[in-house]
Design goal:
alpha/beta; 18 helices; three-stranded parallel beta sheet; elongated; 377 residues
Length: 377
């Protein structure tokens, strides 16, 4: 019972790996159905990319008969994921205490902005809000003169979605040992603070602090794609040997044995200065020249791809990453394969994103069969 990206991303990943995912939508449907572009209303591209391997049923939870369908679904479920605010869930009679009394093995997973344990509980939260509050937007300002900036992807939603996947997987594994379900809370704010501060807690890791916060290498204003004579290059010498090989092929042998290069601690302290030197050197040759010579020297580098260029990327083409298929209502569409590989139990695309309430009859009939089986047992 989730909308937009965080919950749908998580449940799609679970569906890719074989879970039977039933998407419970309000009568108007997931709001992300209407994010353009689209062929037909309610089937926007972003929705299609977040809701494959799911079945849809539309339920008005203020309607007693529809609410009963939801309760019956929960009786038969391993996991119930929602992003409705907890206070609203309690008003609907869908708290963990109420539902676990009906299904003691239920994994009850709430995904929302802020933990119920703190003063921000119940506040509305979207990706931009969490990027701002978690320090992410501020961190982007180190490379720009315009002040704080949002990362150009819904990073908080997707990071929290991945956190949902591992939390649910862990709870399911624990249940195999204990036989009991439990409630899980995955708040976006705390998830992103944890995510951001892995490297940026820095000096504040210690008591007393040993310097300020922020990982200097990442925050250097010279850490960016470097301009070449005809474009841009992503370049990242990291180890001592890689830095030395870069300066050798760049014909800057005066820097090969410089302590700023050879001594890791000094290199860390001088990283902005080294990146500045690197930026000056890189603009002297073309992108293709650098990729050729640095590839031979085993120095990490890459072209700067636009999203459009990924559609013809040689590696992605070789592994059939983008796959064309025919959607029952939307016609020919492009989808992406499951990015991880399992040698024995591979994931896959079994069904494409559903239209709103597409599977109501099918799901209701399954619930009737399950009810008859419980009665006979």
């Amino acid at each position: 019972m989730t909308t937009v990206a965080m919950g749908p991303y998580a449940t799609q990943i679970l569906g890719d790996m074989g879970a039977d995912v039933i998407k419970v939508e309000a009568p108007g449907g997931d709001v992300f159905r209407h994010a353009s572009p689209a062929v037909h209303p309610g089937m926007g591209a972003a929705f299609l990319n977040l809701n494959r391997n799911k079945r849809s049923i539309g339920l008005d939870l203020k309607n007693p008969s529809d609410k009963k369908i939801l309760i019956d679904l929960i009786l038969n479920a391993d996991v119930f994921v929602f992003n409705v605010r907890p206070q609203s869930m309690r008003k609907l009679g869908l708290s963990y205490d109420e539902l676990s009394a009906l299904n003691s093995r239920l994994i009850y997973c709430g995904a929302y902005g802020f933990s119920e344990s703190g003063p921000y509980a119940g506040r509305p939260a979207f990706d931009d809000i969490i990027q701002a509050m978690s320090g992410m937007a501020s961190l982007q300002s180190s490379n720009r003169e315009v002040g704080p900036s949002y990362v150009n992807t819904i990073l908080a939603d997707k990071t929290a979605g991945l956190t949902l996947v591992y939390a649910i997987s862990m709870a399911l594994y624990e249940r195999e040992k204990s036989g009991a379900g439990q409630a899980i809370e995955v708040p976006m704010f705390e998830t992103m603070v944890s995510f951001n501060l892995v490297e940026h807690l820095a000096g504040e890791t210690f008591d007393p602090p040993r310097g300020g916060m922020g990982y200097e290498r990442v925050l250097s204003p010279y850490r960016r794609p470097y301009r070449t004579s005809d474009g841009f290059l992503s370049l990242m010498p990291y180890t001592t040997a890689q830095w030395q090989r870069f300066f050798e092929v760049a014909d800057r042998k005066d820097l090969v044995h410089d302590p700023r290069v050879t001594l890791p601690q000094q290199r860390s302290e001088s990283i902005g200065e080294l990146y500045s030197i690197l930026a000056e050197i890189v603009q002297q040759r073309s992108t293709a020249d650098w990729i050729a010579v640095l590839g031979q020297a085993d120095v990490p580098c890459a072209p700067v791809n636009s999203p459009e260029r990924l559609l013809s990327d040689a590696h992605l083409e070789a592994i059939d990453f983008f796959q064309d298929c025919t959607h029952p209502s939307e016609g020919k569409i492009r989808t992406m394969r499951v990015p991880v590989k399992f040698s024995r139990t591979p994931g896959g695309v079994r069904r494409l994103a559903p239209t709103l309430d597409e599977h109501r009859a099918e799901i209701v009939n399954e619930l009737k069969s399950a009810s008859k089986q419980r009665t006979s047992n």
